[in-house]
Amino acid sequence: MEWFEETLHHNWRQTIEIKEILFRDKTDHQDMIIFQSDRCGRVLALDNIVQTTESDEFIYHEMIAHMPIIGHGNAKKVLIIGGGDGGTAREALKHKTIEKVTMVEIDRYVVDLSEKYLPSLNGGAFQDPRFELIIEDGLKYTAETDERFDVVIVDSTDPVGPGAVLFTESFYGQCKRCLTEGGILITQSGVPYFQPDELDMIPNNLRPHFKDVWFFVAPIPTYVGGHMAFGWATDDAAKRHVPVEELRKRLDTTEALKASPDMRQYSPEVHFGAFAIPPWIQKLAKLETNS
After folding, report:
1. Of 85, 107, 155, 158, which is the active-site residue?
2. Strand ordering across the sheet containing 179-188
3. Residue 273 has pLDDT above 90, yes or no
4. 229-246 pLDDT, tens per residue?
5. Which pLDDT belongs to residue 62?
6. Is 51 helix (H, G, I), strand (E, B) or coil?
7. Residue 255 has pLDDT above 70, yes or no
8. Is residue 121 left, alpha or beta, with left meaning phi > 0 and alpha meaning psi from -120 to 50?
9. Cβ(213)–Cβ(237) below 8 Å
10. Catalytic residue check, 155
């Protein structure tokens, strides 16, 4: 019997039984393994850190994509930084109103192997004519592109190795440059219980560039530690306070989502409630409770 041992958190280990190793290699950027497990289905890990599993990826991908797109109300163009497994692109492209999804991924290997070994995650997104893949460093792309997006989603690894630059103030400033007026930036922000420093660092680096900075949360079992946090940043504070009735209306008029029976996590009620984060997380992030 072989076990995968995740070593992300100090003094804590998560282990998953490996039924079969499907792929293992070291790329120019990171160590990669894809394996089959009984509990989690297929698992993708980079540098000994679980990135996604077939069993619970829908929670992460539905929340990171639908929260900003439906919250925006009129999003046409989406930029994804990272997201090489294709799950975020899959969810974004469920919206018929989305005209283009651009995914900027530093490691082509991740995309190719995810397409081969984790096809359920991208769900055909890579073949959608509205999808564009750019193999590039996210910081370089956001600093140089002339394109503008209604939503920017940073679907990154944790702030170690090649992903560390995607948590800096300079990077967030470049993301702001890429947004249209009233656009929304979403950042993968770790598990507050085990990664409290991220909840201090991320809002401090966002606030110089955005008027409204907050978080929403979702429980993702294989990101062990309870709540997973997602940073939310925009200059239009009203987009964070859309009433449930309006969210329902926006969802009801999104024909692609109405036709998708696999919406297992996101709903207007979950959307509205996800911003009601516990006081201890608010304290970590130094958030104003009356905002």
Report:
1. 155
2. 131-135, 100-105, 77-82, 149-155, 179-188, 227-234, 212-219
3. yes
4. 999 999 999 999 999 999
5. 96
6. strand
7. no
8. alpha
9. no
10. yes
Q: Distance between CA atoms of 278 and 63, rounded to whole angstroms?
A: 18
| Beta strands, E only, the chain | 2-6, 14-18, 20-26, 31-37, 41-46, 49-53, 77-82, 100-105, 131-135, 149-155, 179-188, 212-219, 227-234
Mean pLDDT of 133-151: 96
What's the predicted TM-score (pTM) here? 0.94
Asked if residue 154 has pLDDT above 70, the reply is: yes
Of the candidates 129, 138, 180, the one whose C-alpha atom is nearest the C-alpha of residue 159 is 138
Mean pLDDT of the 25-48 span: 90
- What are the chain's domains? 2-53 (2.30.140.10), 57-285 (3.40.50.150)
Give, in degrees to the nearest 5, the angle at Cα 53 between 51 and 56.
115
Place of tokens 């070593």: 7
pLDDT digits over 62-116, tens only?
A: 999 999 999 999 999 999 999 999 999 999 999 989 999 999 999 898 899 999 9
Give the largest CA-CA distance in the chain. 54
Residue 79's nearest CA partner among 182, 180, 203, 199 is 180
